[in-house]
Amino acid sequence: MSALYPTLPPFALEPQLVSRIWGRRDLKPWYPDMPTEEPIGEAWLSGDACVALSGPLRGQTLQEICSSQARALLGADRAEAESPLLIKILFAQEKLSVQVHPDDAMAQRKGSPRGKTECWYALEAGPDAEVACGLKPGASLGAIEASLKDGTLEKWLEVLPVKTGEMIFVDAGTVHAIWPGSVLLETQQNSDITYRLYDYGRPRPLHVQESLEALRLRTEAGKVEPVEEADRTRLVDCAYFRIERMTVGGHVASDRFTTAGQALSYLFLLSGTARVSIRSGESVPWPAHTLLAVAACCEDFQLECDGAVELIRIVAK
Ligand SMILES: [Zn+2]
Description:
By secondary structure, the protein is mainly beta.
């Protein structure tokens, strides 16, 4: 048992690279120094097994910290002592399966705590980058079922070109697929329920009945227009997360980032370098392209930026 802390200093989480058949071997410039013998599809930035790199909880996993420090990390009002969001980077070299996630109500009927609403922020996108997000107007359940039988589901998918810096919202129930050409920062409810509707004839198992139960013909999914605020750009705001992009420089006090006890948030270091200094005078390591966890009850800290630093801020709700 570790001590119970009323407040926590900010700490970075070590990413975990996950091998996937559709991934890539070269992770430059994102993780140039990490060994990649297998093709890497995902870097989990806030996985349950990601480890704190500094502070009193150094070496503990995020799951351990959520359960032992729930009040300080997640906020007083949170019922579950579990990480609310799973944040990943996806490196797709091939098409991922066409899939759908259940909403909270369906997940709970099946015995899981929550469904999965997610979103994708394009960190990088080549000229041909595309994703499939939602169904075309005129799609019906009957038409979808028939297209699965004759292998023509793709004609019903709404295909979106992706450009660097765009945000795509994918609410639970949306039929979707990540396709090659982009590097995406994915934020999702921390759930592992994925129903695979179609896999382009590849031999992996499908979950057609569950997919048809979970999917909705019309959803809120699609590109989200950014909203300019005084000192940040709001990229998306839904029931489960709010995501902002910020450009900061010089010395930045932590009250720009903290939530006064309300919620766990994360800062993703998109570009530039910054040091994080905490009350004790120590400097907290914050490697590029990692998440800095800012607890609901976070000690004051200061970012000391080298020139302009671009951040993505993700607030769990
Ligand atoms: Zn998904």
